[in-house]
Write a structure and sequence with these properties.
This is Branched-chain amino acid transport system ATP-binding protein. Keywords: ATP-binding, Cell membrane, Membrane, Nucleotide-binding, Transport. InterPro entries: AAA+_ATPase, ABC_AA/LPS_Transport, ABC_transporter-like_ATP-bd, BCA_ABC_TP_C, P-loop_NTPase. Pfam families: ABC_tran, BCA_ABC_TP_C. By secondary structure, the chain is an alpha/beta fold. The chain has one domain (about 1-230): Rossmann fold. The chain has 9 helices and 10 strands. It has helices at about 40-45, 70-75, 90-100, 110-120, 135-150, 165-185, 195-200, 220-225, 225-230, and strands at about 1-10, 15-25, 30, 55-60, 60-65, 75-80, 155-160, 185-190, 205-210, 210-215. The strands form 2 sheets. Strands 6-7-8-3-9-10 form a 6-stranded mixed β-sheet, sandwiched between helices. A 4-stranded antiparallel β-sheet has the order 2-1-4-5, with helices on one face. Strand 4 and strand 5 (about 60-65) form a beta hairpin. The longest helix has 18 residues, at about 165-185. It is globular, with a radius of gyration of 17 Å. It binds adenosine-5'-triphosphate. Adenosine-5'-triphosphate (ATP) binds near residues 16, 33, 36, 37 and 39.
């Protein structure tokens, strides 16, 4: 559960997030909005990369703001970036294993955990392949696998579907949908692919000019005339 209370983030006096209040409780939540709406700023704020000017954010009841990025990782917060952070000279196995050096891991042995997340992300067959030998989809799935090791509680996925083929997008969709139950983590998904949002997110927050334009069940939100005007061009 992400509880955002009256949150503002400013860059040089310009408010990228402006008094945002939202309770995101669904297992998979969508975050959409036009370019410049403040979506990436919100993810950066949650991960501890930018400070808040005011407000509060609670993750499962625990205050996030004021904690360092690594303290947030230890609380179970994980994120993927728009540009994948795969180490080119490390194998898939070692890319994911490197993440385990930084996170508490209680679920069985290292080997068992890596085997589990590589199987879940359909990367077992390429576990020994180097980062630079992977295609875009495999690189994206390495990001997902890295987010799943340890004890994740909240996964922030920033446009994981961008540039994927329809078939790859379907595989990603199935993985995202299965995460909450299989790993006990909530997912916050930013993507411009409305079909991906519709298929995976039961609750969606629409941001515009750093504010909440709409929040609620995804189908209802996407039908909202204000959302259609601001974002869907209808
Ligand atoms: N580091 C920064 N310095 C100054 N302004 C910034 C910075 N980061 C973001 N902004 C501004 O904050 C606003 C929100 O940007 P943000 O990247 O969060 O939007 P977004 O919704 O993620 O957009 P997109 O869909 O294009 O990724 C924009 O006006 C942007 O120019």
């Amino acid at each position: 559960m992400i509880d955002i209370q009256n949150l503002s983030v400013a860059f040089w006096g310009v408010k990228a997030i402006d008094g945002l209040t939202a309770q995101l409780s669904a297992p998979v939540c969508g975050l959409i909005g036009p370019n410049g709406a403040g979506k990436t700023t919100l993810v950066n704020l949650l991960s501890g990369l930018v400070p808040a000017a005011e407000g509060q954010v609670l993750l499962n009841g625990q205050a996030l703001l004021g904690k360092t990025p690594i303290q947030r990782v230890r609380l179970g917060l994980r994120r993927s970036f728009q540009t994948e952070q795969v180490v080119e000279d490390l194998s898939v196995w070692d890319n994911v294993r490197a993440m385990l050096d930084h996170v508490p891991h209680e679920r069985g042995s290292v080997k068992a955990q890596l085997t589990e997340v590589l199987e879940f992300t359909e990367l077992s067959a390429v576990a020994t392949r180097l980062g630079r030998q992977l295609n875009l989809f495999q690189r994206r799935m390495v990001e997902v696998a890295k987010a799943l090791v340890g004890t994740p509680r909240l996964l922030l996925f920033d446009e994981p579907g961008a540039g994927l083929t329809e078939q790859e997008s379907l595989l990603l969709r199935a993985a995202i949908l299965a995460i909450p139950q299989r790993f006990g983590a909530q997912v916050l998904l930013i993507d411009h692919d409305v079909d991906l949002i519709k298929a995976t997110c039961s609750q969606t927050l629409v941001m515009d000019f750093g504010q909440c334009l709409a929040l609620g069940p995804t189908a209802q939100v996407l039908d909202d005339p204000a959302v259609r005007r601001a974002y869907l061009g209808g």
